[in-house]
Write a structure and sequence with these properties.
seven-stranded mixed beta sheet, six-stranded antiparallel beta sheet, 13 helices, 23 strands, binds flavin-adenine dinucleotide
């Protein structure tokens, strides 16, 4: 008889947890997954997927404007927030159902309850007032939005958890934060005709990305009508008859119907029982794991955002899969975190892989930078002034492309393919040897012949 109720008990049915649960079951393990909210996790229920649907919805306004340049007369257009939200919710319900079906088809038991760890082999299901035992426990509880709860009037702010469920489209929004989630929502609201202001405490939006990309995004978002205020923070929020009054330390007064707080996310480890079991956390509350997703406590593992390594869905999925290969298929598997391509669904969009110029300057002696900023063909006829930016960063000693950054239409799609090239170690000569695809915007990536700047550390 089996010593434990399960071979693997997964806490959290998000990107990492679901993949690990399903794969372990495929290898014959007896698996259960506990979920306190909805199966699918952040990405499917209140992250990547509904966000991208909102981005699509918001882009039509710009498309209608562009259409005029191609001879179209677009009749009166209007947007129904309630219709869109209902359709978006139906799609999320459909995906949630698919995730449940898929787990069930693989004989994974889904337990609708919060779970907390009692010991390295025991989990308490708080919603069902019982406990279960497992050979291995996997913590895949993800992250949750940070919130400045002590700010006067903080109760009037919403986070990305609530933004997907607003009953009405606001007329005026203040988005607090300068990271990708804040800026994506600023683009969404602006596209939907909402008077949108971004308030960010840092020098420039989108910290961690290439500086030219950051500056160009700032410019382009402002051109589209988003007001961006940097180097400032909220000092108070008051609710009055005309909506919410936001006062900032820099002396601004902004009026809003909604204030979206998007000031980062933290690993969701609070109250999980980790301290009781002795699982080590870092200063940000993330679970410390080794390259095989092992915590310092035998039999307890963690993957995904709760470990705060690279907080992206594909990474959580790979980590979940790698863990299962290691534990159930006798195939110790590690993840390679280098050159992870990624997209930011701002308007305009960003696709990027590899180092920013600042990172490259810190790591390499000699760099060649190739950069082009231009108005893509579609925008010229449309009379649309939006510029596209392409930037390639090359280690001048080896000729390897170590960073590639695109800002403009469809650059998220480009990032996936650029990711393959950069991951394979493509050189600038490989880019040059590749025939252009004409007429496209991306052909610029293989036609930039002369560096726009050369950086040489030793003169
Ligand atoms: C607004 C937004 C947009 C995003 N956009 C993108 C994007 O475009 N591309 C991208 O790659 N990534 C994006 N992300 C990040 C992505 O969603 C996460 O990296 C990914 O979901 C992490 O997966 P995970 O398995 O670690 O955790 P999650 O998907 O967060 O899943 C954790 C699950 O655990 C559950 N849970 C937590 N504690 C317990 C408990 N004690 N008991 C039971 N259940 C529990 C939670 O309810 C949740 O369902 C976005 C995130 C947000 C918030």
């Amino acid at each position: 008889m089996n010593e434990f109720d399960y071979d693997l008990f997964v806490i959290g049915a998000g990107s990492g947890g679901v993949r690990a649960a399903r794969m372990a079951a495929t290898y014959g393990a007896k698996v259960a997954v506990a979920e306190e909210y909805r199966v699918g996790g952040t990405c499917v229920i209140r992250g990547c997927v509904p966000k991208k649907l909102m981005v699509y919805a918001s882009k039509f306004a710009h498309d209608f404007e562009d259409a005029a340049g191609f001879g179209w007369t677009v009749g009166d257009s209007s947007f129904s927030w309630s219709d869109f939200i209902a359709r978006k919710d139906a799609e999320i319900d459909r995906l949630n159902g698919l995730y449940i079906k898929n787990l069930e088809r693989h004989n994974v038991e889904i337990i609708q309850s919060r779970a907390e760890i009692e010991s390295p082999h025991r989990v308490r299901l708080t919603g069902q007032d019982r406990h279960v035992t497992a050979k291995y426990i996997l913590v895949a509880t993800g992250g949750r939005p940070n919130f400045a709860q002590h700010l006067p009037g903080a109760e009037h702010m919403i986070t990305s958890n609530e933004v997907f469920h607003l009953e009405d489209k606001p007329d005026r929004v203040v988005v607090v934060g300068g990271g990708y989630i804040a800026l994506e929502f600023a683009g969404i609201f602006n596209g939907l005709g909402v008077d949108t202001t971004v308030l960010y405490r840092g020098e420039e939006i989108l910290r961690g990305f290439d500086d030219d990309v950051r500056a160009t995004l700032h410019e382009e978002m402002e051109k589209k009508g988003v007001q961006i205020i940097c180097n400032d923070v909220i000092s108070s929020i008051e609710k009055g008859e005309d909506g919410l009054t936001v006062k900032t330390k820099g002396g601004e007064t902004l009026m809003a119907d909604q204030i979206l707080s998007a000031i980062g996310r933290s690993p969701y480890t609070e109250g999980l029982g980790l301290e009781r079991v002795g699982v080590e956390l870092d200063a940000k509350g993330a679970i410390k794991v080794d390259e095989h997703n092992r915590t310092n406590i035998d039999h307890v593992f963690a993957v995904g955002d709760v470990t705060n390594r690279v907080n992206l869905t594909p990474v959580a999925i790979r980590e979940g899969a790698a863990l299962v290969e290691t534990l159930f298929n006798n195939n110790p598997t590690e993840i390679d975190y280098e050159n992870i391509p990624t997209a930011v669904f701002t308007q305009p969009e960003i696709g990027t892989v590899g180092m920013s110029q600042a990172e490259a300057e810190a790591a390499f002696d000699n760099l060649d930078i190739y950069m082009a900023k231009f108005r893509p063909m579609k925008n010229t006829l449309a009379g649309n002034d939006e510029k596209m930016l392409m930037k390639i960063i090359v280690d001048a000693d080896s000729d390897k492309v170590i960073g590639c950054h695109v800002l403009g239409s469809d650059s998220g799609e480009m990032a996936q393919l650029l990711g393959i090239a950069v991951k394979m170690g493509a050189t600038k000569a490989d880019f040059d040897a590749t025939m252009a695809v004409h007429p496209t915007a991306s052909e610029e990536l293989v036609t930039m012949k002369e560096p726009t700047s050369r950086i040489r550390k030793n003169g």
